Amino acid sequence: MSETIFSKIIDREIPADIVYEDDQCLAFRDINPQAPVHFLVIPRKPIAKLSDADEGDKDLLGHLLLVAGQVAREQGLEDFRLNVNNGAGASQTVFHLHVHVLGGRPFSWPPG
Ligand code: DGP
Predict the structure, then answer these.
(1) Where are the domains of the chain?
(2) What is the pTM of this model?
(3) Nearest protein CA to atom 3 of ligand 1, as residue
């Protein structure tokens, strides 16, 4: 996988407002927030998109979701939305897997 802006954040080559990190993942605030609280949870492992993950990534994917929920609660969110854009046609722009966590405003359904 080619290097992305997120691998530079992992390697501390560019700054980010990191709200959580452990040996498997990082969570940091989105530079272009779409809600009062908007952060991204990314694996340290460079997986380009969700559909590139495989059976061996099962625990890691579960961990990303657990961290998303835990950090959302720490950020004071009770209701929040998770979003994963998979592929350019689904508005993915950074090809390093990331879970968007958005909260602090109402969300409608279906999404746009
Ligand atoms: P997506 O469209 O799903 O690939 O979302 C990529 C998100 O990444 C987008 O909401 C903006 C955010 N983003 C892009 N570059 C940076 C950056 O350099 N720093 C931070 N914190 N967020 C970024």
Answers:
(1) 5-103
(2) 0.97
(3) 92
Question: What residues are in contact with ligand 1 under a 6 Å CB criterion?
Answer: 5, 16, 28-32, 85, 91-94
Q: How far apart (Å, rounded) are the C-alpha atoms in residues 107 and 104?
A: 9
Helix/strand/coil for 26? strand
Residue 2's pLDDT band (cuts 50, 70, 90): confident
Distance 86 CA to ligand 1 centre (A): 14
- For ligand 1, atom 8: residue with the closest CA: 30
5-103: CATH, from 3.40.50.880, 3.20.20.300, 3.30.428.10, 3.40.50.300: 3.30.428.10
Q: What is the pLDDT of residues 56-95, one digit of tens each?
A: 999 999 999 999 999 999 999 999 999 999 999 999 999 9
